[in-house]
Amino acid sequence: MLPEYNGVMQRFQIQLDESTYEALRLRAFEGRVSMASVVRSAIQQALDVPSEPRHDLADFRFVGAGSSEGDEEPPVSVDHDRAIADAIQSRFEPT
Q: Contact, 81 vs 33, CB < 8 A?
């Protein structure tokens, strides 16, 4: 299983010979992952870099913590684009 990355990454470019490129492409295809992910995993293993911790649902307890109950119809949680547009428009209306 390939590691998951949650932090900031640095971009760099490498050049591969044709046979290495094809082997990389095949490994990515077989694993149903990106070629970049295969490269990151191989480098991480070669350099013995510890993997970042994976997140699970317990890390996202805040999801659904708010509510839009009240007089609004429909609630802001459903029609948030309209609510934002109304809030912005009200700032520019003459008082």
A: no
What SS3 state is found at 5? coil
73: left (phi over 0), alpha (psi -120 to 50) or beta: beta
User: CA-to-CA distance for 58 and 55, rounded, in angstroms?
Assistant: 8
For the entire predicted model, the pTM comes to: 0.49
Which residue is it, tokens 């390939």? Answer: 2
Q: Give the HSE-up count for residue 22: Cα atoms under 13 Å, Cβ half-sphere.
A: 3
Output the six-digit token pair for 61.
Answer: 């307890």
Q: Collapsing DSSP states into helix, strand and coil, what is residue 70?
A: coil
Q: Above 90 in pLDDT, residue 47?
A: yes
Distance CA 9, CA 12 (A): 10
Average pLDDT over residues 14-32: 96
